[in-house]
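Sat 14:20. Reprocessing the chain from the morning session after the first attempt stalled halfway. Input below, unchanged.
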Amino acid sequence: MATATSERVQKHRIALRESGLRPVQIWVPDTRRAGFAQECRRQSLLLQDDAQERETTDWLKAAADTEGWQ
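Finished this time. Tokens:
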């Protein structure tokens, strides 16, 4: 059964490549890791009174389409 699954996956990957796509591996922070939320908070607090951060936040608020959000 593993062989059939492997063959099906391989065929799918070949089809994707033939359509002009290529695989890309992206590493992102593990949000489930112990201490992740605390580190996010720590970094956010470092930017709390930063003028450039305030400017960026103001721009994001102005540019965001939040119509219909709750």
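The chain has a mean pLDDT of 93.
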